[in-house]
Write a structure and sequence with these properties.
Elements lengths: L2 E8 L1 H5 L3 H10 L3 E8 L3 H7 L9 H8 L4 E9 L1 H9 L12 H5 L8 E3 L3 H11 L8
Antiparallel strand pairs: 1-3, 1-4, 2-3
Helix pairs in contact: 3-4
Bound molecules: adenosine-5'-diphosphate and magnesium ion (MG).
Amino acid sequence: MAIERTLSIIKPDATKRNLTGKIVAKFEDAGLRVVAQKRIRLTKAQAGQFYEVHKERPFYDELCEFMASGPVVVQVLEGEDAIAKNREVMGATNPADAAPGTVRAEFAESVGENSVHGSDAPDTAAQEISYFFSGLEIVG
Ligand code: ADP
Ligand code: MG
């Protein structure tokens, strides 16, 4: 295991319901450290670029609309095995399949409006972090 960094996004369904603090607490309780964080409002085009890997999937347009529908909190989480650990704390994409105690089991509204994003591998983590943050904005 190594110290890694991963990109996390608290999605509009969660910011709208004032769940930012409760969600961040789950990451911190799991040993992940917030080393960069900002609250922003994405345009649909910016959301589309972020989720470009999914552009052929049937839910792409709906996903981009949703991600632009309200503020998001983008953050860099750091810790031992942070990429996998973040995904463990998030739970499965569909809240119906998410393990008890995970963010998505507790807070997600549906498979689309599922409260959080997390990078899935070291290369995507690096790419997603640099989409939102400059090196100067990440303070470990
Ligand atoms: P994850 O966010 O768990 O990595 P994916 O990368 O497969 O999941 O999908 C990206 C996002 O697209 C999901 O978090 C969710 O918001 C949305 N999504 C995935 N599958 C569906 C679906 N079947 N219907 C609607 N939205 C979906
Ligand atoms: Mg994904």
